[in-house]
């Protein structure tokens, strides 16, 4: 039985969490560079916790320049077992209104200017992301959010766009016609990298706006988003506070195999592997290399 460490990656508007015992911000070095910021660690009801502000405190990193690989590596290196992404999102559904939350369970990745894998020349691996989120972890977030009085929806597809500009109206209508439920700029490649690092990953969308498709709401407006963000961030903290009691300090193997994703994924013959890349993969893939 391993020990649970719940890691929260806070998106726009969520730059810290409260109530941790023995709280301290720690710098973590990684072979992939520096993470977005120091990482807040501590315990909550006897469960180890880590919090990383995705854009850094003061919102320094843009969606395209968030150091996604360093962030996931740093969390893995600290001992994280479960990663919960909490993100501001636009909605493509009338019934998913600003202020509501959604447990995302699938993605369409339209990002194009980011490093998307820990693997490459000298150590090639192919993990499955057919089911990119962990249902066990998503269910815990759903239960925690409901208990916190948040209006929360279960199951939906997140369109990951490059940004930083918001979508045109034609794009917004196109993504809606594809069956997407929400849109954001950061959950890819984060979710793919978490899978490569054998971490359970859940994504909680905190809805801030209707993007630009809605005839009654017009174009997406950052001032309106910022107004909704503060309330959403407080709700996000309320949800996080309830997670340790639901997940517990002792962790059994993930029933969905997230923690064994690399079992048969590495293709490169042992004698052809690049020692320099293997050294960088110590935290992420040390279990199988
Ligand atoms: C503040 S609006 C656009 C910004 O908000 C979202 O950030 P995050 O996913 O980190 O919560 C969106 O992806 C954009 O980066
Ligand atoms: N409409 C939107 N598009 C992309 N990212 C967002 N984050 C919050 N609202 C968004």
Automatic annotation (TrEMBL):
The biological pathway it contributes to is: Amino-acid biosynthesis; L-methionine biosynthesis via salvage pathway; S-methyl-5-thio-alpha-D-ribose 1-phosphate from S-methyl-5'-thioadenosine (phosphorylase route): step 1/1
Name the source's superkingdom.
Bacteria
The feature of type site (Important for substrate specificity) is located at 167, 222
Gene Ontology molecular function: any one: S-methyl-5-thioadenosine phosphorylase activity
Binding of phosphate, residues = 12, 54-55, 87-88, 186
First and last residue of the signal peptide: none
Q: Which UniProt keywords apply?
A: Glycosyltransferase, Purine salvage, Transferase
Query: What are the annotated GO cellular component locations?
Result: cytosol
Task: Output the Gene3D superfamilies linked to this UniProt entry.
Answer: Nucleoside phosphorylase domain (3.40.50.1580)
What GO terms describe the biological role, i.e. biological process, of this protein? L-methionine salvage from methylthioadenosine; purine ribonucleoside salvage
Q: What reaction does this enzyme carry out catalytically?
A: S-methyl-5'-thioadenosine + phosphate = 5-(methylsulfanyl)-alpha-D-ribose 1-phosphate + adenine
Its EC number(s): 2.4.2.28
Q: Where does substrate bind?
A: 185, 209-211
Where in the numbering of this chain does the Nucleoside phosphorylase domain appear?
6-242
EC supergroup of this enzyme: transferase
Entry's NCBIfam families?
Answer: MTAP, PRK08931.1
**What is the similarity comment for this entry?**
Belongs to the PNP/MTAP phosphorylase family. MTAP subfamily.
Q: What's this protein's function? A: Catalyzes the reversible phosphorylation of S-methyl-5'-thioadenosine (MTA) to adenine and 5-methylthioribose-1-phosphate. Involved in the breakdown of MTA, a major by-product of polyamine biosynthesis. Responsible for the first step in the methionine salvage pathway after MTA has been generated from S-adenosylmethionine. Has broad substrate specificity with 6-aminopurine nucleosides as preferred substrates.
State the protein's name.
S-methyl-5'-thioadenosine phosphorylase
Encoding gene, per UniProt annotation: mtnP
